């Protein structure tokens, strides 16, 4: 989506006004989505660590059994 | 530079910037004081914005002075103002009243992080509401969600952890669906600005990617809004989260997702996709009816007080959606009024639960037997808010249910069925609220409830302020009504 045929990097230069350049926005969006993805994964893993700490297991059926007993 | 011109940006920026500072505050009580002050400032900004919106039609703000379709534009309408008031008022009231409750549930050294997450959630919710940029909405949605996961996971019961993990997975799926939809629209129109999108989308409105995008966005957002049958993450999270967090999130988080849903479906898609309003009704009305009936039914059999109220929340989301799915100005007005009134009623109920939580470690209904003798003020506030939830005349809940019923009656045979649904579910609400009242007032006192004494005064004051607001807006509903009416009219301005 971002590549424009014959386009260069989207950088403003002095004296250049007729240059075709590629669309920078999709890369920005993807980059942001990657950052969001990483933070979500990190938080998810942190929660898994806490589940392991408090239940002693990360098997779902064992967790369910432990919850049923308590 | 006049400060009032920058209110839309300040609404988000102030809590966003204070949040990292709060992490550094290690003095006892200071994080709470700073977070509460910030929340109060956010509320004041929301009131200021509401005043401006009531005078003029809407406020736009160009971030960093980049012109609208290129830069990010903030766009505050009467609909945003309604949501901003709900979010900031809920945050402020729960923070002011909830200090002692938070102190008992969150250890002292984790509190700076807790309040930082709270402010981030506040910034995320207000950000979603004020922004006029589709991708910006996604980013704020993730900020708000990640912060809410942290807030919920702060609960002391270990069962909160699997619950919050489920929420994280489902919340991420919802946000990803939304992002896929926005990506498809960007591919077809080359814009992310909602107003620009609205103007350009009709050229490609009949093409398949736009239809797919509408599907992805609607589905992603109803997952975020916990509409039946995509509600599975909500009840357990609300049950095991810290009490004050439940009060805050129950009052605003699902409503913000509904806000984005309504904005997208009515402003962007409505006049550009053929027969969109029919699809909207056919798809969402059955879900709304099922949510109302099934969630109310489950609440009747729920054994945990917070779980009961959580299922009732799902039913209320159904009411809001039912009003919207009629796709008429009066219907939508009723739905938006219910948004406001439900935030009031459920906020009060969960604050009363926080009062009970100060004296009880377990909030199963059986544990609470006979508690009203020891905690009369708490239970009186609970009853008041419960009446508002049921929709007894004189309370806020009555206004919106009455509006819903009178709108539904104009719909002919279908409308009669809808009225029956509303009446049945209100009766179910009587049943589940009565179960709590019966046990608390007439049950034999348990050991725990004999030892309990009235909740701390400050928390009780907060609960009663919220409870009396239920009465106030039940007697004088003109203020939320004018906002809701104006929002509904502007959302549906393109209706054929």
Task: Compile the SSE list and pairings.
The complex is a heterodimer of chains A (70) and B (496).
Chain A (H helix, E strand, L loop, with lengths): L24 H31 L4 H10 L1
Chain B lengths: L6 H17 L6 H26 L3 E4 L10 E4 L1 H28 L5 H20 L3 H20 L6 H30 L4 H7 L7 H17 L9 H7 L2 H27 L6 H26 L3 H21 L3 H31 L16 H15 L5 H14 L3 H30 L4 H5 L5 H19 L2 H14 L5
Antiparallel strand pairs in B: 1-2
Helix pairs in contact in B: 1-2, 1-4, 2-3, 2-4, 3-4, 3-10, 3-13, 3-18, 3-19, 4-5, 5-6, 5-10, 6-8, 6-9, 7-10, 8-10, 9-10, 9-12, 10-12, 10-13, 11-12, 11-16, 12-13, 12-16, 13-14, 13-15, 13-18, 13-19, 14-16, 14-18, 15-16, 15-18
Structure description:
The complex is a heterodimer of chains A (70) and B (496). Chain A has 70 residues and is mainly α. Chain A has helices at 25-55, 60-69. The relative contact order of chain A is 0.10. Chain B is mainly α and 496 residues long. Helices cover 75% and strands 2% of the residues of chain B. Chain B has 19 helices and 2 strands. Chain B has helices at 7-23, 30-55, 78-105, 111-130, 134-153, 160-189, 194-200, 208-224, 234-240, 243-269, 276-301, 305-325, 329-359, 376-390, 396-409, 413-442, 447-451, 457-475, 478-491; strands at 59-62, 73-76. A two-stranded antiparallel sheet of chain B has the order 1-2. The mean pLDDT of chain B is 88. The chains are: A mainly alpha (70), B mainly alpha (496). Chain A binds chain B through residues 1, 25-26, 29, 32-33, 36, 39-40, 43-44, 47-48, 50-51, 54-55, 60, 63, 67, and chain B through 135, 138-139, 142, 146, 149-150, 153, 158-159, 161-162, 164-165, 168-169, 172, 175, 179, 183, 186-187, 192.
